[in-house]
Task: inverse folding
């Protein structure tokens, strides 16, 4: 269901929108002090704008499957048991807001590895995140949590992590990035707590930023893409806004679903190449081979040539090999990004790589949408959407 049909079915939408305005008038008087309280930084007062008229908002789960444990369910047993019980797993969680007079295509914001949709909601220092920025710009916005994390939950039952009686549904271990790895790997600075001199990272929100990242279980791209395709089937044509590892998932979702009308990708990784045309792995400083994204059949890859794609990359990516893997990976991944764009365009597509320093914007991290200049970065996305005819009003 697209945003236009959603607006049409809600008879009380105008009343709801009025309530949102009245509530917003109250909240706008306190929002600044709340943001400052979150971080202890008076500068966090900036960035909270006027009230927004929202005609519909909510959340739902979509996609996934169900597993049933062998045995017979016995309701008289007091202790928790999987026997004979069914469990929904591998669904996606989406929350959405639809503004008055929404544009034709909603934005679906997809988080990266070890993260959740909270990365789009607000910045670590309490400023408005992309969810609100683009809501203000007239887009319906859907923010998701992948299957197996966040509000979508993960497949675990009664007992050992991920085990349904004697069947291991997901591996019995998790992964998580620590503060030190996060600081260097997301390019806040070359060493822990040593910021790049020109950094745009909101330093007052560092503690909040570390808490954005959560433990993860195995990411299965088929499970994630299945869920994204189910979401797109439900909401209709949309624009995907991806980050980091979800750059690949956005591409695979576009291959799977004709409802993807464009992709804006913030430092995405592992984009696919056609079978037989993937670039060779590249050696890192220590000799470790870093490969490109797994290939897909050419007929699938060609579907990516039918939509506009923009990959946005921040600053402080080394130009020469580095002994620290967290700094090496962005250097090598940038090479693969360039090759992906070249390959799409060689087949007649419309892909572009936007290096922020090339347009005079410096100091951005791996997550430019959270940085101090995220409004400036958002302006570039708005320009791209306008140039590609993706910001038309819904009629």
Result:
């Amino acid at each position: 269901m697209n945003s236009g049909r959603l607006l049409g079915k809600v008879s009380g939408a105008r009343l709801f929108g009025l309530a949102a305005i009245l509530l917003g008038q109250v909240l706008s008087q306190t929002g600044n002090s709340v943001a400052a309280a979150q971080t202890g930084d008076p500068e966090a007062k900036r960035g909270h704008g006027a009230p927004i008229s929202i005609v519909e908002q909510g959340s739902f789960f979509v996609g996934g499957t169900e597993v049933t444990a062998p045995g017979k369910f016995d309701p008289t047993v007091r202790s928790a048991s999987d026997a004979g019980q069914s469990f929904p797993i591998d669904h996606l969680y989406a929350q959405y807001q639809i503004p008055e007079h929404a544009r034709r295509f909603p934005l679906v914001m997809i988080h990266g590895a070890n993260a959740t949709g909270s990365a789009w909601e607000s910045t670590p220092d309490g400023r408005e995140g992309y969810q609100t920025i683009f809501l203000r710009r007239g887009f319906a916005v859907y923010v998701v949590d992948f299957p197996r994390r966040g509000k979508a939950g993960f497949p675990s039952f009664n007992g050992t992590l991920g085990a349904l009686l004697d069947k291991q549904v997901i591996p019995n271990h998790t992964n998580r990035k620590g503060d030190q790895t996060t600081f260097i790997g997301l390019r806040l600075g070359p060493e822990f707590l040593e910021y790049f001199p020109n950094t745009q990272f909101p330093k007052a929100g560092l503690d909040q930023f570390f808490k954005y990242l959560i433990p993860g279980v195995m990411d299965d791209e088929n499970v994630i893409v299945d869920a994204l395709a189910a979401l797109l089937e439900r909401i209709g044509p949309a624009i995907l806004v991806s980050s980091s590892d979800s750059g690949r998932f956005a591409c695979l979702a576009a291959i799977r679903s004709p409802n993807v009308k464009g992709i804006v990708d913030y430092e995405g990784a592992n984009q696919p190449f056609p079978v037989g045309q993937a670039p060779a792995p590249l050696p890192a400083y220590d000799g470790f081979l870093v490969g490109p994204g797994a290939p897909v059949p050419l007929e699938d890859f060609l579907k990516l040539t039918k939509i506009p794609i923009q990959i946005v990359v921040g600053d402080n990516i080394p130009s020469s090999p580095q002994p620290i893997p967290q700094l090496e990976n962005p250097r090598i991944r940038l090479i693969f990004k360039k090759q992906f764009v070249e390959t799409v365009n060689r087949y007649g597509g419309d892909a572009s790589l936007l290096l922020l320093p090339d347009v005079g914007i410096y100091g951005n991290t791996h997550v430019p949408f959270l940085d101090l200049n995220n409004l400036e970065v958002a302006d570039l996305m708005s320009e791209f959407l306008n140039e590609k005819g993706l910001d038309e009003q819904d009629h």
Summary: Confidence is low (pLDDT under 50) at residues 1-47. The CA atoms of residues 177 and 271 lie 22 Å apart. The domain at 56-387 is CATH 3.40.50.1820 (Rossmann fold). DSSP finds eleven helices and 14 strands in the chain.
